[in-house]
Amino acid sequence: MKKIVTLLLVAAMLVTSIAMLAGCGGETANEDFKIGFIFLHDENSTYDKNFLDAAKAATEELGLSAEQVIFKTNIPEGNECYEAAADLADQGCDIVFANSFGHEPYILKAAKEFPEVDFCHATGTTAHTEKVANFHNAFASIYEGRFLAGIAAGLKLNEMIDEGKITAEEAKMGYVGAFTYAEVISGYTSFYLGAKSVCPSVTMEVQFTGSWYDEALEKEAATKLLSNKCVLISQHADSMGAPTACENANVPNVSYNGSTKDACPNTFIVSSRIDWAPYFKYIINQRQKGEAIAYDWCEGFEAGSVALTEVNEQAAAEGTQAAIEDAKAKLIAGEIKVFDTNNFTVEGKKLESYLADVDTDANYEKDTEVIKDGYFHESEYRSAPYFDLQIDGITLLNSMF
Amino acid sequence: MNKLTNAVWNCFGKASIHIAKRDDIAWWKSWIIRVISVVMALIVCGFLTVALTDLNPIDVYVTMIKGAVGTPRLVWNLLQNTAILLCVSLAVTPAFKMRFWNIGAEGQVLIGGLATATCMIFLGEVVPGPVLIPMMFVISVIAGAFWAFIPAFFKARFNSNETLFTLMMNYIAIQIVAYFTLEWSVPKGSGTPRTLEFGQLPMLFGQKYLINIIVVILITVLMYIYLKYTKQGYEISVVGESENTARYIGINVKKVILRTMAISGAVCGIAGFLLVAGTDHSLKSDTAGGRGFTAIMVSWLAKFHPGFMVLTSLLIVFLEKGASKISEVYRLNSSFSDIITGIIIFFIIGSEFFINYKIKSNRKSKEEN
Q1: With contact defined as beta carbons under 8 Å apart, do A251 and A225 qualify?
Q2: Angle at which helices B72-97 and B291-301 pack, to 10 degrees?
Q3: Taking the domains of chain B in order of start, what are their residue ranges?
Q4: Residue A136's Cα: distance from chain center in Å?
Q5: Does the CA dihedral B96-B102-B108-B109 come out positive or negative?
Q6: pLDDT higher than 80, residue A220
Q7: Distance of alpha carbon B244 from alpha carbon B261, whole angstroms
Q8: Where on the phi/psi map is residue A204: left (φ > 0), alpha (ψ -120 to 50), or beta?
Q9: A64 contact B CB<8A
Q10: Per-residue confidence (pLDDT) for residue A27, from 0 to 100
Q11: Model pLDDT for residues A56-70, shown as the tens digit of each residue
């Protein structure tokens, strides 16, 4: 009897140890892994949908189960964000990611409270100065994507000029912006410079809404630009307001955050967007390997972080796709620079030197020289854009601080 | 037969039931009706859950409870949110009891919060905390009271419509706060409010929300005493029942209106103070988060009784927190949890109908006649 019991015990121990070994050899580290996402809105906002889709794609590709990935949507930029982050940490998340600029102070607060969890924050600006070991910022060199989208816009303008629909002087674009803030300024300036690189006579008007997401205001702004005789519209705001206004007025639209072709089949040309999947894969891999996550991460075309949607042949000018591919290759090779100081002027003068506000402080002190080697070094000293110059050719109809 | 029963009788035509107003109902009966209504709401939501998703409704309810009270942090969060909602609800109550429809709590809270934020920004570095915090409190109270006093003044002086007036005052307050949010945003132009470092309410026993909760408990008790046992509280009830009666017995109605609205605004100011200094440490146009409107429901559901308001505000916050957990765990759009919350609240409000009216069988009532 004793023997049988001993045998059984030994057998049981063997089985358990083999199971444990197998577990170790397999994906034990992965099984305990958890990542939590905090989104400002839900999939009804193009901005958040872009993040949600990337998060789903990245976590599926890495084989994480639904239990390992927690989504918190509609988290406002307030104390609720801190509570959400802390709750995710309580639920055992190894990484907590937040997607809105205004989440930053609350995520930073949580990062200080939970040093064992990595907190990653998109579009933020303070990680490189705060130097909290587990707090990280990320962005992408989206200005390069905007530049390519601008080329598509410029080619469309050229087509209109060639067809005699407008004169070269009438090549005026409209841009719906959220706030008069570096991220938006950098975006519309690179878009304008892209258009100008193929259509030298182009000008642009910018109307700000004072909100990142307000469908009615964005539509209203687009309508105002159209009544100002803008012949092409682009936007940096997150609702369908501007694209819809364009489709209704049958005016071409260059979109952002993703394709709006389904809703606007006749007017959607192309859209630039940040693909967050490479970043998500990067942070998950680093954490699982036990390696540090960069405190300020910024990638572009090569990592797949900046992407352009398919060109809509219905609306775009002929040869758009080829021109985009060509310029993209040159950007990657470093042959052309988006903010080449030969290509723009400020108050009629070429720019030789500029101090940008790279290190965030309450007094917005300009602190870093960003013009070197004949171009403005965007997103190099920190991931979030800091190009905030008003260049010639672009008229701001209002400003929203 | 009274008029109402007649009207209902006509509506029902040949139906075999009719509705009559109850004279009085035992407290335990009314609570049985309330509990039944909640149970029925849960059953209806259960069917809906099965119909729209393939989830087990019991699991959904368990998730909901976990989302509201699953961890100590969540419990504190629940209590803190309840405290703020309760504070705003208490604030609108004296006005409501007076039949003065103060729909402007949202704006009054924001103006109180703006006063707090202004102190934190401009005096934060100059004045030490122990002096600053009482200053912030007093100034917020004055600011909130002032904001509520404006519509009250026009009501008392020109008999303007207070519902519209207070409602419109919200939008003015929201725009003023939006302006300063942008003005003070860091980095400038981003629209992101700055974190207010100085003058934050301290932790108590290691709990950051405890002060908020204690302050609101105090206000609850004081409001109960004020409404039930003081002369001013009695004046409010009389003016609410009938202004003519109030005048007849020598109550200065205008004075009561002005005073009561100032109190209403002052308590809203405290809510703004607690939100900005106690929890958010920042100010935005949505800092009040719609509580100024939710408070109306909380106050009505509790029939203006501060004690019951503790329960109704807890219920609403509980549902809200539980609902967001549902969308988190099952990855459902938040609309689904909003529908569930809506149905539950609808049933609870509906239960008041059965508490105030009874349904009688026609045949029986004919015999009675």
Answers
A1: no
A2: 70
A3: 83-311
A4: 15
A5: positive
A6: yes
A7: 19
A8: beta
A9: no
A10: 43
A11: 999 998 888 888 999
> Which residues is B121 bridged to in the sheet?
none
In angstroms, the CA A100 to CA A78 distance is: 11
A181 CB neighbours in chain B (<8 A) are 187-191
CA distances to A78, A221, A277, B263 from A238, rounded to whole Å, are: 20, 13, 19, 42
Beta strands per DSSP E along A69-202: 69-72, 95-98, 118-122, 135-140, 172-177
Task: Determine the distance in angstroms separating the CA of B198 from the nearest CA of chain A, rounded to an integer.
Answer: 14
pLDDT digits (tens, 9 = 90+) for B220-236: 999 999 999 999 999 99
- In angstroms, what CA-CA distances link A309 with A189, A207, A256? 20, 25, 9
| Residue where the block lists tokens 């092409």 | A232
Task: Give B7 to chain A, closest Cα distance, Å.
Answer: 44
Q: Strand A296-299 and strand A35-38: pairing?
A: unpaired
Provide the 10 A C-beta neighbour count for residue B156.
20
Given this model, what pLDDT does residue B368 score? Answer: 46
3-state secondary structure of B309: helix
Q: What is the DSSP string of B24-57?
A: ---HHHHHHHHHHHHHHHHHHHHHHHHHHSS--H
How many helices, marked H, and strands, marked E, lie in chain A? 12, 17
Of B183, B189, B195, the CB nearest to A181: B189
- What is the dihedral angle through the alpha carbons of A157, A159, A163, A164, rounded to the nearest 10 degrees? 20
The strand pairing partners of A306, in sequence order, are A274
Q: How far is the C-alpha of A94 from the C-alpha of B254, rounded, in Å?
A: 61
Residue linked to tokens 């003005």: B183
Residues from chain B contacting residue A385 (CB–CB below 8 Å): none
**pLDDT, tens digit, for every residue of B12-21?**
555 577 888 8
Measured between alpha carbons, how far is B9 from B362 in angstroms, rounded to an integer? 10
Closest Cα partner for A47 from A220, A187, A189? A187
pLDDT of A19 higher than 70 = no
Asked if A179 has any chain B CB less than 8 Å from its own CB, the reply is: yes
Distances, alpha carbon A355 to alpha carbons A351, B71, B297, in Å: 11, 48, 54
Q: Write down all domains in chain A, each with its CATH number in brackets.
A: 31-141+277-299 (3.40.50.2300), 147-273+309-396 (3.40.50.2300)
| 3 state SS of A255 | strand
Sorted by sequence, the CB contacts under 8 Å of residue A378 that are 6+ apart come out as: A141, A143, A186, A190, A338, A339, A370, A385, A386, A387
Question: CA B142, CA B112: separation in Å to the nearest integer?
Answer: 8
Q: Supply φ then ψ for residue A299, to 5 degrees.
A: -130, 170
Note the pLDDT of residue B199. 83
- The two beta strands, A203-208 and A172-177, are parallel
Residue A201, C-beta contacts closer than 8 angstroms, at least 6 positions apart: A168, A169, A171
Assign B305 to helix, strand or coil: coil
Classify strands A371-372 and A375-376 as parallel, antiparallel or unpaired: antiparallel
Helix residue ranges per DSSP H, A44-141:
46-61, 79-90, 104-113, 127-130
Cross-chain residue pair B187–A183, CB shorter than 8 Å:
no
Q: Is A390 on the interface with B (CB under 8 A)?
A: no
Residues in chain B: 369
User: How large is the average pLDDT for residues B101-123?
Assistant: 93
Query: C-alpha distances in angstroms, B200 versus B107, B160, B203, B208, B285?
Result: 22, 39, 9, 10, 19
**Which residue in the block uniquely carries the two structure tokens 């409000």?**
B349
**What percent of chain A is predicted at pLDDT more than 70?**
91
